[in-house]
Amino acid sequence: SGCTQRNIRFQRIPPSNKLRSLSSDRQTLYYSEIRVLEGTRLLQTITPPHALPQPRAFDSDTAAQVTPPAANAPALGFSAERQLHALDLRDVNFDGFTDLGLPWDTTHNDVHLWYLWDPAAGQFRYSFALQGDLTIDAERHLLIETRWEEGPHTYSFNARGQICWQGPYEM
Description:
Strands 8-9-10-11 form a four-stranded antiparallel beta sheet, with no helix packed on it. A four-stranded antiparallel beta sheet has the order 12-13-14-15. Mean pLDDT is 82; it is low at 17-26. A hairpin with a 2-residue loop joins strand 5 and strand 6 (41-46). It contains one helix and 15 strands; from the N terminus they run ββββββαβββββββββ. The longest helix has 6 residues, at 60-65. The chain is globular. By secondary structure, the protein is mainly beta.
């Protein structure tokens, strides 16, 4: 996969062992790290946080919305379950650069940790987590997160680049 800003590609590194799913005999895979490459040059290695850093959020209400429960944290890495939890590459903060959403949990909540491209540093920086299906309303500069049990929520960004929870989605 590549980003629009440069010739960047991603290399997903699985852990040395596979885990068996508790509910079936199929193999469940996790990635222990994501390598961000420009050509053959390593730009960055992203490892799954077992304790999430503080989100880059406007206020405590927003932080509560974009921080999933610690109990949902995968013990072994980013989910590699492609049918449910795919790596997501989109410009979610409307700055013209492709951002990186990494699947963090293996529940039906489908939480993605969003790493936003920092052009000054030439790397992705952790910013926030969103769950469920994500729709981008580029015209109104909104993110619409459709959660499994709660329905859609909307977010925008302030002038400092912090995510701001707007509340339940209204058409």
